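Is it possible to get an amino acid sequence alongside its tokenized fold?
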Amino acid sequence: MVIELPKIILKEKAISEIPNLLKNLDMNSILCVFGKKTYELFGNRILDILDDYRLEKVYVDVCDHSTIDKVMRKGQELKSDLIIGIGGGKNIDVAKAVASYLNIPWISVPTIPSHDGIASDRSVVSKGKTKYPVLGNPPQ
């Protein structure tokens, strides 16, 4: 059995490493998944360091099928070849699920160090009051 671990960068100002990761992935069109609060705190900084790429941002409030479908349609429309999930659980879970459905890589940029889904291959999706896991792919 082989277990591949994603590259994890833990350091101050790790966000500045994103362009270096992208150089190795040969990406052009990027879809960034934010929550509104995450965007207020980190959005401009992340968009500034990604200004060499064609990118679009979407905001999510919950990780449910409706939100995943909305973000997936946006990714298809843009012909995104990478998804970046920025923030806490729901943002990263939506990015993870969409990347899996579109069969494209994704990068996890957690802003909460205790978040346990930063390197996992599962999203937690809500359906009403029930939450269940959806299998995807680990981040790049």
About this structure: The chain has one domain: 27-135. Strands lie at 29-34, 54-59, 82-87, 106-110, 122-127, 130-135.
